[in-house]
Amino acid sequence: MLIVGNWKMNGLIETAQELADGIVAGLGARSGRSLPCEVVLCPPATALLTVHQRLDGSVVKLGGQDLSEHESGAHTGEICGIMLRNVGCRHVIVGHSERRADCGEDDAKVARKMAAAFRDGLQPIVCVGETLNERERGATLEVIGAQLAALVPYVPRELTRRQTLVVAYEPVWAIGTGRNAELEQIREVHGFMRRQLEEAFGADAARMRLLYGGSVKPANAGSIFGLEDVDGGLIGGASLKSAEFLAIIDAVPEKF
Ligand code: 13P
User: Which of 97, 134, 231, 248 is close enough to 139 for a disulfide, judged by CB 3.0 to 4.6 Å?
Assistant: First the structure.
């Protein structure tokens, strides 16, 4: 299981430090072994270095929220994978629906960014998901299928434990709305994604991780994480309060 906190555009240095300290302290005496999941925090870029320093010596890992598809050069305002590695990141979120909507990132660009993350030694966490309009007209699986298909040619042949495909299913209508998808809807999409990945990658698909994101809270986390083909969560709002985030981690079933 993998639990990722996406802080989005929240947190100045002081609040980021406090939040990171609260999470590390809360995980406290638990060793990496007894923790039922891997935990990754994705602060805004300006707080990455300071959060990296606060996480030093803990089991919690650091991730970026986006990266450039380019290696370096004249791309004002962009941050490349090597720079993320340089401030301690091992992971990076790619293709979040907010970036798809705000920055016009299409499936092809998301796939190139994922390839850049693999190239630069980062673990990409690629977001997919349908809008409310797409769900209402019955196009959910078609949309998710196309988003996944765009990734397939860019996934390296040789995957490792540290670099595999991680996909986060985040229905756009469930993000920040308090309205999370019903368990049956999550089960349907996650099962569909696993089958798509099996068709593309065979036995390797079993080791790829499928996260759910969208209004995950302590109250609903346990039932979502208990679903087959759900290998963790991508948490937005509830990752901004250490107590809520820790309660979500506590909801991870012991079997993992
Ligand atoms: P919320 O948990 O706030 O709905 O956000 C989900 C998300 O977008 C995580 O990337």
Answer: 134
